[in-house]
Every structure is written in structure tokens, then in C-alpha cells.
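TA notes, week 10

Several of you asked for a full example with nothing omitted. So below is the full record: C-alpha cells for the whole chain, then the designed sequence directly under it. When grading your own attempts, check the secondary structure regions first.
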């Protein structure tokens, strides 16, 4: 009798395992993907097109650049404010384009919207880099803007234009824009717009040359425009490598490959020190994952270059089953790093792991974390767990994406979302006129569908408090890597 019971238990366990493999999640990744892309329409600056789907947003900042005799309209507001910070905007664009490049074929009807989201940035960056010897790096005085709670359509704050030049360089912002243009050129080439792709690549090469030739940090050139808002803490060397790596992928030119190989040794201390870092400030882990695709395709490169060992070290630092793991996790399983807006780490690092799994799929390379071998499917399982946590598989059963599921944040730290739309209230709201909407505990007036907030604390607690910007503010660089992640899992769940 005991033997029969044991057999039944084993059969039941096997059935549960097979069932969980066959139906790994009840989430609608396709719906989440659509909403994640839609979020970028809510962040648009400039003259909105007739195809605008978030109709509570209207035209804004139509005179950007006028003081400089330039048309710098367009682009994105980075988060819940009304400033166009080109450094994080360019990083978001690079990640959006990378997601389209890797997983665009899985996006279905969302692919045109994803490409449109990329183009809204790249059209703006073409304007920002149109003057030889100058890169326009930011529009909007962040100190004035952060002193107001005001709709973008109503802005009274100075639309100060910040630029970097040969005499006042900003290698990190220029190089990140070059990376964005190069990555986008690949995405548009892959999906049928070769003339635009060629234009982007030509500009990327020129902007990279400028960034590399006139070296210096925009922290020094822009002062209070950059710091403390998007102050570059990791130096500009990683952005130069990142841009060169993207230009190599786009052109196949040995010039860019030689640049990466030569400079990876020069910058080795920074790379090793930041092996785990990837975000708008630090590109170290991303460089190694991006370059790994080329290394894996070439004989002898694995033995003569450090890129795969760096990429493997990144994996070993993140995955919880690795004996050398250094990342923290909440009790509910969310990847957690110190600092504001934790979800930026969750989505960006997860995206890198998924892409690395894709590159490893057709190779014989093995990841070893001391005596533990990490398989490609472990990377995929880890990233899915992070995505599912964001969508609601967490101790609070709350989706951290606005508009997805039945329980999601209602009081996000976002000016346009919290204030009544000009459709509802056409009267001008001045700088301090929006303060009561900021302070109220009532839900936001408009749903910024698809916005993913900074997320819970390390104990999985989340108060849904508009005032707590670190946890309740959405950003473009949280959503950008999520686009590729959701496209992949959408395709997997439909099989």
C-alpha cells in the first residue's frame, strides 16, 4: 500500500511539473507589451500626431530650441517631470531599438508602434546633432521644472537649452546618442526602412567621432543642468565603448572592433569594478553582452578577449543559484539594488540575461560560476520570474504596470497623469496651481497606461504614494528594456 501511495505521489508531482512547464504563467504578455509601448506616447514632447492614442495628452514645448535658433521639438520627457534629458533618453532609445532588433518578429501588430516609439526619439536626436561640433544635450531647466507641479501643455518654466561642444565636451551624452542612432539604424534596416537606417548610421558615426575626439564629462560642461539629476558617476569611457560596439555591429568595420578591443584593456579597472552595472549611467555589463554575439560567432576570439568571461561574471553575480551571487532579492523574489527607482535595475539586468541566453543558444559556450554550471534556460526562467513579479506575481498581488491587471498603482508621481487634462480643464494651470493635485490622496486624473513605477521596497512593501517618487515615479528607462522582454514571453506563451 505504501508503495502505491508513493507511486501516486510521484505521478502527481510529475503532473504538476509538466503542467507548470506547459502553462508557465497566466499573464497576458501581449496585452502587457501593447501597454508598455503605449506608455511612450504619454511621454511625448512636441507636436503630437493624429495617430496619438493617449488622447488626454496634447501638444507641448513647441518652441524648444527657439532661443538657440534651433528646432529642438520632439523627444521624450524622461519621467514624471517635463525636462528632456538627452542622456537617459538616448539610453532608453538604445534599449528600445535593441529590443526591436532581437524580438521585433515576435511583436506582431505592436511592431509598428515600437518602431514609432524609437523614431520619436531618433528624429529628435537628428535635430540635436545637426550642427557640426555641437550636441544639444538637454532642453528645460530642471531646477525650475522640479519646483513646479504643472502639465507639460502649460509649462511656464524656462526651456533652457544645454549643449556640449569642442570646448565644453560631453562625451557620455554624445556617445550614448551615437549608440542610440546606431542601434536604431539596425532596427529600421531589419524592418524595411533602409534609407532612414542609412541616415541614422551616418549620423551615429559622426557623433561618435565628436564624442571620442573631444573628451570630457558633461558634468563639468553643463553643471547644475546635469547634476544632481542625471550626474554621470561612472565616467564617459563606458559610453565610448558602448557606442563603438554598436557601430561595429551596424557596420562590421574592423575599425570599431579594434577600438573596443584596445580600449577594453585600457578601461579594465572600470569594467571589472562595474561588471554588474547597467543603466543610463553605466554600460559595462551591456557592452559585454552585446559584444558576446560577435565573439561567439568567431573562432579564437573567446580565448583572446575578455568579453565572455566578463559576461559570465555578470551572470554569476546576478543569478540566485550562483555561489558568487552579489545581488539582493526581496522575500517575494524581486531583484533589488540600492538607490532610487529599483525597477530600472530589474528590467535592464533581466533584458541582458535574456539576450545573453539568446546568443548562447546556438553556441557550445558554458557558463561556470565556480563549480556550478548555469544553463541557458536558467537565464530565461529567471527573467520570466522578474517579469511576472512586475505584472502581479508578488506578495501584494499588485501589478506595477498602470492599466495592467485589476490592481495597480493609482497615485503615480507624474505631473501630466495627476493633473486634469486640458480636455477636461482647458484653463491654464500655473506653476503652483497643480500643488493640490500633487498633495491629494485621490487617484490620478488620467491613466498613464503601461507606466511601470519604481516599485516596492526590499521587503515587498508598496504604499502607492505620489509623494514617494523613488517608488511611484515611472521612467522611460524602466519601460524600454521591458518591451523586448515582453515580446519574447508573448511569443513563448502563444506556442
Amino acid at each position: 500500500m505504501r508503495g502505491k501511495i508513493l507511486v501516486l505521489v510521484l505521478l502527481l508531482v510529475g503532473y504538476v511539473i509538466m503542467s507548470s512547464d506547459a502553462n508557465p504563467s497566466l499573464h497576458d504578455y501581449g496585452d502587457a507589451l501593447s501597454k508598455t509601448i503605449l506608455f511612450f506616447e504619454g511621454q511625448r514632447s512636441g507636436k503630437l500626431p493624429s495617430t496619438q492614442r493617449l488622447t488626454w495628452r496634447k501638444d507641448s514645448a513647441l518652441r524648444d530650441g527657439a532661443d538657440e535658433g534651433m528646432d529642438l521639438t520632439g523627444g521624450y520627457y524622461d519621467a514624471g517631470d517635463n525636462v528632456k534629458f538627452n542622456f537617459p533618453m538616448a539610453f532608453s532609445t538604445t534599449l528600445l531599438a535593441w529590443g526591436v532588433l532581437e524580438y521585433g518578429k515576435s511583436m506582431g501588430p505592436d511592431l509598428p508602434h515600437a518602431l514609432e516609439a524609437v523614431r520619436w526619439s531618433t528624429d529628435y536626436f537628428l535635430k540635436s546633432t545637426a550642427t557640426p561640433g555641437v550636441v544639444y544635450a538637454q532642453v528645460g531647466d530642471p531646477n525650475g521644472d522640479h519646483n513646479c507641479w504643472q502639465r507639460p501643455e502649460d509649462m511656464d518654466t524656462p526651456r533652457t537649452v544645454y549643449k556640449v561642444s569642442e570646448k565644453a565636451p560631453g562625451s557620455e551624452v554624445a556617445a550614448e546618442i551615437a549608440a542610440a542612432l546606431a542601434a536604431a539604424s539596425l532596427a529600421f534596416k531589419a524592418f524595411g526602412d533602409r534609407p532612414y537606417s542609412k541616415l541614422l548610421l551616418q549620423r551615429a558615426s559622426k557623433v561618435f567621432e565628436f564624442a571620442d575626439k573631444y573628451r570630457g564629462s558633461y558634468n563639468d560642461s553643463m553643471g547644475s543642468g546635469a547634476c544632481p539629476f542625471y550626474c554621470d558617476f561612472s565616467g564617459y569611457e563606458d559610453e565610448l565603448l558602448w557606442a563603438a560596439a554598436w557601430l561595429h555591429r551596424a557596420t562590421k568595420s574592423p575599425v570599431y572592433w579594434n577600438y573596443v578591443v584596445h580600449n577594453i584593456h585600457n578601461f579594465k579597472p572600470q569594467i571589472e569594478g562595474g561588471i554588474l552595472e547597467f543603466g543610463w549611467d553605466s554600460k559595462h555589463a551591456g557592452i559585454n553582452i552585446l559584444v558576446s554575439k560577435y565573439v561567439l560567432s568567431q573562432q579564437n576570439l573567446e580565448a583572446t578577449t575578455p568579453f565572455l568571461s566578463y559576461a559570465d561574471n555578470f551572470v554569476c553575480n546576478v543569478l540566485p543559484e550562483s555561489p558568487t551571487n552579489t545581488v539582493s532579492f526581496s522575500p517575494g523574489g524581486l531583484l533589488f539594488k540600492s538607490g532610487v527607482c529599483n525597477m530600472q535595475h530589474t528590467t535592464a539586468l533581466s533584458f541582458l540575461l535574456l539576450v545573453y541566453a539568446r546568443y548562447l543558444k546556438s553556441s557550445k559556450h558554458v557558463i561556470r560560476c565556480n563549480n556550478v554550471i548555469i544553463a541557458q534556460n536558467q537565464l530565461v526562467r529567471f527573467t520570466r520570474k522578474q517579469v511576472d513579479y512586475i505584472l502581479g506575481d508578488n506578495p501584494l498581488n499588485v501589478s506595477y504596470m498602470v492599466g495592467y491587471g485589476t490592481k495597480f498603482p493609482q497615485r503615480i508621481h507624474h505631473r501630466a497623469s495627476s493633473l486634469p487634462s486640458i480636455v477636461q480643464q482647458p484653463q491654464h494651470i500655473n506653476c503652483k496651481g497643480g500643488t493640490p493635485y500633487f498633495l491629494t490622496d485621490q487617484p490620478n486624473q488620467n491613466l498613464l497606461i503601461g507606466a511601470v513605477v519604481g516599485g516596492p521596497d526590499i521587503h515587498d512593501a508598496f504604499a502607492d504614494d505620489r509623494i514617494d517618487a523613488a517608488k511611484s515615479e515611472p521612467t522611460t528607462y524602466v519601460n524600454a528594456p521591458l518591451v523586448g522582454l515582453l515580446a519574447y514571453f508573448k511569443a513563448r506563451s502563444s506556442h
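Strands lie at 84-85, 134-139, 161-165, 328-329, 335-336, 367-369, 372-374. Use that as a sanity check on your answer.
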